[in-house]
């Protein structure tokens, strides 16, 4: 479910709203106007992947597999 940022054209209030497909049209929480402009906003994405080389497992000592011990068939 996306969260959109809006700016009210009537009063200038900026707000965020969780919008579902079945949701009614959003309205301004301050003046109740439906004359809204959707703002361009940045999104945030989380990743479970390591971001630094030091966060990666050490290579397997037997075969050198980069995913670390237990990643290959040898151990």
TrEMBL record:
Pfam families: Zn_ribbon_8. Residues 1-41 form the Putative regulatory protein FmdB zinc ribbon domain. NCBIfam families: CxxC_CxxC_SSSS (TIGR02605). This is Regulatory protein, FmdB family. It comes from Candidatus Accumulibacter adjunctus.
